[in-house]
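pinned: reference chain
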Amino acid sequence: MKTTKKILIDAKAAAASLRILNTQTKNAALEKMADALERNAAEILAANAKDVEKAKAALGEVMIDRLRLDEKRIAGMAKGIREVAALPDPVGKILETARLTNGLEVTKTAVPLGVVGIIYESRPNVTSDAGALCFKSGNVCVLRGGKEAFE
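pinned: its structure tokens
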């Protein structure tokens, strides 16, 4: 099992290659992610059912409902990824330009952060939402969901 430090070192190394992807490549990858969610729905639901069953001993019904997936929620996750793919690519967008008194032009441009770490409760949809948003914006993400969503 990798340590957190090793995971973050690997993520930082991966960030350099992600940063150079063009919009078309990122959008195609996001579409494939959405397709894979739908194509593997039965396997995902089976794994989620194991998590839900284990969680019944430790969580209340509200938290179990957040953990529970069904076909409609998986379709919503895939739809969310496709919506992110349809968004304008923020990377390289010029946010502000100013000309200094000495004539030098300064431009503020949107660039990826590099690595984004996200710790969240056991909500499987956060995995796809956060992953898609980070990917679209040229960032590698390290996700840490709750132990209840282990499968």
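why pinned: DSSP finds six helices and four strands in the chain. The CA atoms of residues 19 and 53 lie 40 Å apart.
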